[in-house]
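Q: Two folds, back to back.
A: First:
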Amino acid sequence: MAKKLLLAFLIILGASLIAFLAWFCFQYFAKQQDSVPAYFSSLTVGEEATFDTDKSAKSAEVFSSSLTENFALLKTKEAPSRSSSSASSPLLPPSLPLEVLAPPPSLMDIDKSDYLPRIAADGTEPYNFYKAPFDHKKYAREAKLAIVVTGLGLAKSTTNIAIEKLPAAVTLSFSPFASGFVSQVISAREKGHETMVDLYLEEETANGDMIFSSPGTILTHLPYDENLARAKATLLNKGAVTGVVALGGSAFKSAPTASLAAVQKFIMDKGLIYLENDPDFPKAAGSVTGGFFLNANATYRGDLNTKDLLSFIKKAADLALDRGKYIIILPLSKATLNALLEGEIDGLFAGVVLTPLTALLPK
């Protein structure tokens, strides 16, 4: 009898140990995924990713939908009329759909079946034409916070939630590798979001190693014309975007900036915003014919967990109250969505008005 009891005890103990080890392994690997550095998380984290590293950055098809698709979408998506709906919160602008869903010919530099943005003959710049409406008089005395979420289009479910659920004042930036880029931009603009496109720059780790995040990354060692070709490919056939969000780029701090200056000039000469993720990284481009260069005040670079993101956003809101305006960049992830949605419900943005990025451009 004693032997049978001992055997049963050992079996139960063994089963418990196996269950514990399985639980421990699950928690460990889940933590590893959650702790991926956020800087290029949109390329390394997320379900249903559509990024294909085998495609060449020199091919327009890597980044682009066809011009035919743009015109087809423009025909089938009629611009909704504006309503007089009120804001869901005194400090949240009304969630109105944007009238401009796809580029008009006047803002398109067309070459056969492709196009790039351009400044119109009458001087109209794309960033100004595509911007979301904002009542500057109504919110003149309010502290303002612009939130830009990057990496959309790589994970279908999180992208859809961001478009559908985030406040319209949150600016959404899509990866140039997003499948169905133009249709997703149109969906976001229908919900009132300003839209941008991610531009990847070479990143350097603390030990000096270089991170090559994608085939389209702007690299320090590439010839001038190759980096320009990559910048052009990033913008090719991208629909109604107000500008680019430059991600990475620390490698350029210790490298010649002539090539980066040419990339910045190319983008701003198209009448677009160049949003730099580093608050201390200066404008490299010289004289430009249009557009804007902006530095974000802070970019989230920590682990992708809701608690840390909530703390980061709360600090940003406090700094917006202190300084009057503040711009932050967040990578798209489930934790980011949780933090933004929980923060809105819990009053995280109390005292500040969420604004589209263009609302914080210099007058």
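A: Second:
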Amino acid sequence: MSLKNYALKKYLSLNHTKKLTADLSIDDARGDLNDTISTFMPKFSKKIRLQQAEIAGVPGEWVEHEKSDKERLIIYFHGGGFTIGSPVSHRGATTSLAKTLQAKLFCINYRKAPEHSYPAAHNDCFQVYQYFAESAQNFAKVIVAGDQTGVALLLQTLVRARDEDLKLPAAIVCFSPLTDMTLSGRSMESNKKKDLALHPDLLKRSIDLYFVNQEDRDHPEISPVFADLEKMPPAVIQVGEDEILLDDALFLQKSMENAGCKVMLEKWKSVTHLWQLAAFSGAFGLPEAKRAIKQVGQQIEPLLKMRWLDFEL
């Protein structure tokens, strides 16, 4: 474990973990996230360009590195239990992904609960994806990525896109995915005291706020791990062994493999939930986060080249 990782875990245990109960208000959760960001997020290199924009009427943020390939695109679905998070909170991961994969990245700032319940976020994400699927000149160079509940939004978007005969991307990247809204994984209980950044009670409360009128949480349109994932692109999944979402990652791997999809699962030791968000450039970055993003690049790069050859042939 790196010294920076130790310091991050210590900070979370002293300032964050004790707040993780269902009594934590959404406003306080959003404020706590902002405090954590302001504590750890450095200024970004001048080589990174950030620009607020709207795609298909949905707000978001463009992230571009000076060496970005104009034809390469990452569509990012950020997590946050459908209630918190934004392109700003996820810049550590999005800027690092854009740099590593030399791609332009658009992070979707979809509507959130409790102000907007299901299917608001799902519809926003699909609108953005549909726009790119219909307008991108070279979809063989498109990647979709997401974390936590963002992976649920990502998969539901791709399932709908497949069913509506839209183009599918070259690859999927999933950080600590949550795709089972019944929260049935054993790690919800076994890792409850190990996970310093997420708690089952808080997660259930957030899910309840978004799916307020949806009682069938195991329905494929609610929990994409139970959906038909046939023809989904190859996926890279990263998860920490101490996360309550460990079993969700394993469930997703099994579901995709049963559907005939290629899956590369990485289980990391001694990391916090979504440690990839600390993949800042320079001295401020968490070494484990930088290595995680680097490994994503090593896994995805060959897939992009293979997909490009398929399109050329």
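Q: And?
A: The two ends are 46 Å apart (CA to CA).
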